[in-house]
Each structure stands twice: as C-alpha cells, then as structure tokens.
Write a structure and sequence with these properties.
The chain is built from 3 helices and 3 strands. With 74 residues, it is of the alpha+beta class. The chain has one domain: 2-Layer Sandwich (GMP Synthetase, Chain A, domain 3), CATH 3.30.300. The longest helix has 11 residues. It is globular. It is found in: Cytoplasm.
Length: 74
C-alpha cells in the first residue's frame, strides 16, 4: 500500500523526496499517515478535498487482511 500511495502522490508534488508515509496498525484497521512538504499540502488535498477523497477511496478499496484502511494527510 505504501508503494501505491507513493506512486499516486509523487506526480502531484514539487518535492517528491520529502514524501513520508508511516503506518499504524490497530485491531480492526490500518492507518497510513502521509506527510509532504508544506508547499505541497494543498496540491495533495486538492480543491475542496477532491484529490484527498480520491486517494482515501482508493486506499479503502484495498483492505489489508480484512482490516479497514484509512489515510491521514499531514
């Protein structure tokens, strides 16, 4: 999943080397925390959150071991 997120986010940002993805597992879910350069945050979120919503929808469709997947953008 980290590779998928990396592949989606890299073309959107000006500083691809500053993309950081961390993972936190819980009993029923997995949360990925996506951190980008401050100048790129708006590009990843998109107008009215459209890009962020699309990324979250894609991530949610790919459950891991029956766990729900969430993406938080920092």
């Amino acid at each position: 999943m980290e590779k998928l997120l990396q592949t989606i986010i890299e073309p959107l940002v000006d500083f691809p080397e500053e993309i950081e993805i961390s993972k936190e597992e819980h009993a029923n879910s997995v949360t990925y925390y996506l951190s980008v350069h401050p100048d790129d945050t708006g590009k990843v979120i998109g107008r009215q959150g459209r890009i962020a919503k699309a990324v979250r929808t894609l991530a949610a469709s790919r459950s891991e071991n029956g766990k729900r997947v969430f993406v938080e953008i920092d």
